[in-house]
Amino acid sequence: MGYTNFTTFKVQIDNGIGWVTFDFPPVNIQGLTMLADLDRLAQQLESDPSVKVVVFQSAHEEIFVAHADTNFLKDMSHEAVSRDDVELLDLQVVLERISKLPQATIAKIEGFARGGGHEFALACDMRFAARGKAMFMQMEVGMGILPCGGGASRMARQTGLGRALEIVLGARDFDADQAEAYGTINRALDADEIGPFVEDLARRIALWPSASINATKQAVLESIDRPIEDALRAEAYWLYQATSQTSALTRFRWADEQEAQFDMDNQRTWPDMLVKVQEIND
Description:
This protein is an alpha/beta fold. It is 47% helix and 15% strand. The chain contains 14 helices and ten strands. The strands form two sheets. The chain has a six-stranded mixed β-sheet with strand order 1-2-3-5-7-10. Strands 4-6-8-9 form a four-stranded mixed β-sheet. Helix 6 crosses helix 7 (161-170) and helix 10 runs antiparallel to helix 11 (228-243). The protein is globular.
């Protein structure tokens, strides 16, 4: 499957990892062209289990992904609509599709990620940002609107209501360390550390079965706003999806028959043993 002919980014597939590098001069603006590219990328990834992790990064020295292009926002209706008549925006639809990909998605942020660019990062599963380079902001309230690509709803799920409102209503820049404190990113890393860290994490995740990665991700997504009883049922549902598509039961039988789970050396070296277990397949 070829990941070519995109206008706003380039894609390289390497050992189960899709490296997506935004490269859309002059500022990686998030317009209809980028949304169309992302939608087509998502369509391909949804049916490609050979890709297990997708890392989004930028070729621009100062920008990850810029804000949404004002050209398509300026044509919005002046008329308010009822809740029954409202339709999702293209930005919302595409970013939701990115958020539900079967692959693990990682945003490696080494520049400005404001407005829609920040909302894109929030739609990814994990976010890592470089100190001294990454900068975040939601500026929409100052323009007379509100974040409309998940910046209000996803951020509240990440940070809690008070923090989300501080970020959105304050409409100020905040850096990688502040983002880590807010909870909008996983970690702030020094500029020379972020590349090796993200690559190591992506390569480790890419070792696991694609069905297990997807089942884990979907169970977590389902559990966010459900009562615990419903969340546990979702966990059980996705467990069976995983065991029906992976070598999990074969590996469990091996661990039992070889008494591997009772070996103290194995208990001490679980991270390494887990890699070796990938060799056991049906």
